[in-house]
Amino acid sequence: MYPADAEFGFELLVCRWAEESWPPDGERDSAVLVARQLGTKRRRWDTVVVECDPAGLAARAQFGDRTLDSDLLHVVRNAPAEWEWYRDALPHPGYPWRYVRAAVHRAAGRGVVEKRRRGNRIEIRRVAPYPDWVRRIVAVENKPDLDASAARALSDQLERDVETGLADEVWVATAATGRRVEPALLEDVPVEVGILTVSFDPDRTDWATAAVEWHPSDVTPEDAEDDIERATTRLELAERAYGKGWRSFHETMRPDCRHFELRRFGDAFVPHCAAKGRSQTAAECAGSCPDFEPEPPAWRTKGWPIAGGPGKAIRRLLDDRRERVRQRETERAD
Question: Which InterPro entries does the record match to this protein (predicted)?
């Protein structure tokens, strides 16, 4: 059971379950950040679980709650402890220095490095050492109905995930059927990929339960420690997970529509469309939706608890819950 019986609703609930219960078959000894629809130009995963060093994650919080993109990471990770001209302090980026200078200004504007001008030179120094906070990255594909056709469509993608080894583990999450042998075990899924069956019941205290039907193999390449490109890409993914999380679905949907609501499902909040009378998908919830109606202007001028309209209140609620989880995970270092 999941909202609207659609993959989007299943995906949101898997993300919330992972925040609460990852790993599925052991005690949590890492801090955990969960994001959705994250990846590279060539590959995007439904759910990404970043297992973090708790002390490192707490140190990462010194650089703010927003993502550090690749240009900012280049500056922050290499900023010196003492004042130094930025072109002496930073390794050559492989592209023109004017872009680095722009990144330096952005970094200083966000307070993640310090900047000063000495004559006609811009000098920088770090506000703190950038920590080594990422332990492992786990990729999860969500297919609530993993029938033969869905497995065939996923097979090539999963094979590439295993071969490239950008993630340390790869899983497929599917809806539990309750059969003696889950159908997912009989489908064409690479042997290195774990299979997780998940069930949801919003009326139970244990609203989300998961069973490991097949354990994944660690697909980390043997030369991972020497692969700078892989390490850089993984850090960029982790940074996007840190800043984005999985509740950012409001950024691609229309919470400013008068019909957009959040409904509780177990321990999760999921979108609901009052016009459709059900949970909508992200693709449905757009300005092109025939039921879309902007919030009346009068709603946006009211004070607490609306403070700008229900759409803004929804955004604040989701952002607050994301920050609460991030804070909880950083406190594991204490």
Answer: DUF5787 (IPR043901)
Gap between the Cα atoms of 107 and 99, Å rounded = 12
For 147-278, list the strands marked E by DSSP: 169-175, 194-200, 208-214, 260-265, 268-273
Nearest to 215 by CA among 136, 138, 134, 135: 138
- DSSP designation for 163: H
Q: How far is CA 81 from its chain centroid?
A: 31
pLDDT bracket for residue 297 (50, 70, 90): confident
pLDDT digits (tens, 9 = 90+) for 169-215: 999 999 999 898 898 898 889 999 999 999 999 999 999 999 999 99
Asked if residues 39 and 45 have their Cβ atoms less than 8 Å apart, the reply is: yes
> What is d(CA 18, CA 267) in angstroms, rounded to the nearest whole number?
12
197 neighbors 176 (Cβ within 8 angstroms): yes
User: Is 109 in contact with 68 (CB distance < 8 Å)?
Assistant: no
Question: Which one-letter amino acid corresponds to residue 269?
Answer: F
Bridge-partner residues for 45, per DSSP?
Answer: 38
Evaluate if pTM is beyond 0.90.
yes
Helix (H, G, I), strand (E, B) or coil at 64: coil
| CATH of 3-57+132-246 given 3.40.50, 3.20.170, 3.40.1350, 1.10.10 | 3.40.1350
Could you tell me which of 236, 93, 128, 41 has the C-alpha nearest to residue 103? 93
CA distance 286 to 176: 31
Please, are residues 76 and 126 in contact by the beta-carbon 8 Å criterion? yes
Interatomic CA distance for residues 74 and 69, integer angstroms: 9
Give the N- to C-terminal CA distance of the chain in Å, as an integer.
37
Residue 126 is inside which H or E element, if any? strand 121-126
DSSP, collapsed to helix, strand or coil, labels residue 58 as helix
| CA–CA separation, 182 and 163 (whole Å) | 26
Domain boundaries, the chain: 3-57+132-246, 70-126, 248-333
Please name the helix (run of DSSP H) or strand (run of DSSP E) that holds residue 228, with its range, or none. Answer: helix 228-244
